[in-house]
Design brief:
mainly alpha, 9 helices, globular
Amino acid sequence: MQPNRRVASLSSLSLPLSQEPNSTLTEGGFHGSGSFNWLFECHGFLHNVILILASLAFISYLAFQAKKSVTKLSHGRSYIMIAYYGTLWLVSLLNLAWCCFQAWECTPGKELTWNILSLFTTSGMLFLEVSLIAFLLQGNYASGLEALTRTFAVSAIIVGLDILLKAIYMFGLGIPLFIDSKEEPQKTKWNLWVIHRLVLTAVYGFILFMYHSKWRERLPARPAFYKYIVIMCILNALALFACAFTGNGAGFGFWLYGTTIVCYHSFYLPLLYVTFLADFFQEEDLHLENVYYSEMKDAGFFDADWE
């Protein structure tokens, strides 16, 4: 083998471990060096692997529990739980796609596709957030078609307005909201994220205040809901400070913002499942046992115990 050919073959095997967002990828970089090199693009290997493995693990868990969950939902006949479980599946699949296609954020020509995917994914997760808060404020055992309509209508209006505002920023003003760069931070973009996080932090902070006030009886008396509110309040407060720091050009703010995004997309959906759905599925077992006991008692199976 000639020396120049040997050097060329070795250079074709080299892979950079990370790329900054908004970087330009040229031939000889990621696109031509292997089918799995997208895993190393943009934010780096560790960032992408955590997102993909966490979202894939949750989808696998939902799939493993699907038959059992559907059976319990059919017996329970709770409109809210059925609709929420189906929405959780849809958003989880969107989130898995978002996690797997991180390289689109840094790929020329994919910016629009990435922004649209990010918009639908984050809006779906926001819908789950808002609907859970709306359900929480109605009481722990709100059920029925009327409660479902009221909860989802309020959530759809709020999320719809949020989508409209973000669409104006992206398509009207040409501001790529979901393509992050610490090189030249756009203050207009980060100001929007500051407002977004400020509203969420205020809402969770208000509910947390209710738990420690005379209005706590209006909220479900479940520790899981309280822990959920505390976690989400802290996460949104950290994201609020991160957006404010990043908008002013602080590198630490950009790192903190990226960390909150990884935590949100990796662990929010499992946290929501544990908080809202897991107890319902477990309690349904006890409910079915009580139903079976009542039917057997009505049929006279326990009459001999009184003779």
